[in-house]
């Protein structure tokens, strides 16, 4: 289980806790730029655990209310305190078939929610999480890019 600076990350399928896999990601999501975060992970859910119609939630155990951000098909839940910026991000459309909806993300009070629409378009199910100290230059942009699961 991932312990973030804001609290533990919990993942649920239909309100039942599930195990998830964490993979460390490079702290510089884009090699040629100066954007760097303090921590960055890919959260992987085993596709065999997912069924059509499932609701998957990614929740941070915090009192800070998430703000919605993103762009195009990217949906990010952004958390900000005086000394930390954290984001969890996912895509609405499966990357391999941009015309077919596989799942739909929305921001909830303490994280992200994914509604599974069609399993045939899901090869894998990943969400990224990243955070940075707010004393760093461009911390918002760095975390925004860091929480993009396809960068």
Describe the fold and architecture:
This protein has 151 residues and is mostly beta strands. It has one domain (3-146). It contains 1 helix and 12 strands; from the N terminus they run E-E-E-E-E-E-E-E-E-E-E-E-H. The chain has one helix at 139-146, and strands at residues 3-4, 7-13, 16-17, 21-24, 39-45, 55-60, 67-71, 74-80, 84-91, 103-108, 111-116, 125-133. Strand 8 (74-80) and strand 9 (84-91) form a beta hairpin. The longest helix has 8 residues, at 139-146. The protein is globular, with a radius of gyration of 15 Å. The mean pLDDT is 89.
Average of pLDDT: 89
Low-pLDDT runs? none
**Share of residues in strands:** over 45%
DSSP strand tally: 12
Number of domains: 1
Distance between the amino and carboxyl termini: 23 Å
How many DSSP helices? 1
- CA radius of gyration: 15 Å
Structural class: mainly beta
What fraction, in percent, of the residue positions are helical?
A: under 10%
Task: Report the order of strands and helices.
Answer: EEEEEEEEEEEEH
| Biggest sheet architecture | 6 strands, antiparallel
* General shape: globular
